[in-house]
C-alpha cells in the first residue's frame, strides 16, 4: 500500500479542524436554536457544555484517530481485540453520510443566496425569490453544485486539498465577519439584538434548564463536529509531536469566538429591521437576513460578503464530513482517493436530492436524527477511550504536551471514563424518549442510564478477558 497522507504542518491541522467546527452550526443552527430556546439562557448552558463535554470529548476523538492512525473503522480495529468496536467506526462513517445528506442541501441554499445577492435578483421581493430556494428542483441543482465543489477539494487530498483550502478560508472568514460585526454595530436599532443575545436572565435559565439541556448538548457536539468520526479522521493524519489537548482547546476557543462574532452580526441586523429571529423554522433565518439586507442602503454590497462567509464556512465543514467515508474506502479497501470521492459523492447526490425534495425528511434529519447520531457516536468514543484504551489514552494525551499535562491527563481520563458517559447517556435517553413520545421522570432516566452503563462496562470487561 502507498504511504498514508499527512498534514504538512500542525497549524494546517488546527486550521482544518477549525474549518470543520465553524460552519452552518454556528451561523444557521445556533441563532435558530438560541431563538427557540430563550436567547441568552441557551447561550449560557451551551457554553458550559462546550467546556465540560466539548473539549474533553474532542481530545478523546483525537486520541483514537492519532493512535489508530487510520479511518474510524481501521482505527478501532487497530486499537482493540474485539470484533465489535469496528462497528462503531462503521456507525461513524454512516453518521457523516447522514449529516451531509441535509448539510449539502443547506449548502445549496447558501450558494443561491450568495449568487442571488451578487446579481441583486432578490432585492425587489426576497420572500418570493427565496421561497423557491429551500425545497424543490432548484434546491436539488444547487445542492449538486455544492457537493461538486466539496468533492473537488477532497479529491485533491489531505495537504493539497483540505489543508491548503483551510489556510485560505479561515482567515478570510475571520476578517470578513469582523468587518460585518462593525458594520452591524453602526445600524440603528442594533441594541435590541445585543440585548437578546447577551443579556443574562437567571430566572429563564432556572425554569428551562432541563428543557434546554438536550438541544444545548446537541448543539455543543454538532458545532465541534463531535461524534461523527470527522475529527478522528483529521487527527489520524497527525504525528505524535503535538499536544492534543492544546490543539483541542485552541479549536474550541476559536469556534466559540467565531460563533459569538456571528451572533454579533446576525442579531443586530435582524433587530435593526424589526425582524426578531425564531419564528418560521429552519429556512426563516436566511429569508429574514435577506429581507434585512434588501431594505438597508449598503445591503447590496454587504449581502454577498455575508453569504460568501457562510459559504466558506459550510464548504470547510462539509469537506471534513466527506473526508470520513473517503478515508474509510482509501484505508480499508485501498480504493484510489479520486474514485472513492466520486463514489461517495454519487451516493450523496441521490440521498441529498431526495432530502431537497422532502421537507419532512429534511426536518427529521436536521432537527433530530443528526443530534441523536452524534450523541450516540461520542458516547461510544468516550467509553472506548475511558474503558478500553486506559493507560494508552493517557499516554496519547500527554504526547507532546510537556510535564504540566500529567495531573491534567488523569483528570481528563476520569472525566472521559465517568462524567461524559453519564451526561451523554442521559442526553441520549432523553432524546430517544421524547422521539418515541414517552415521558420518563428524571430519576428514572438517571437510573436507566447508570444501569445501561454498568451493563456495557461488564461487556467491555468480558471482551477483554
Ligand atoms: N461543526 C459543523 C458545523 O457546526 C458541522 C459538522 C458536524 C461537521 C459533524 C462535521 C461533522 O457546521
Ligand atoms: Na466550516
Automatic annotation (TrEMBL):
It comes from the Archaea. Pfam families: SNF. InterPro entries: Na/ntran_symport (IPR000175), SNS_sf (IPR037272), YocR/YhdH-like (IPR047218). It is a multi-pass membrane protein. SUPFAM superfamilies: SNF-like (SSF161070). It is found in: Membrane. PANTHER family: TRANSPORTER. This is Sodium-dependent transporter. It comes from Halomarina ordinaria.
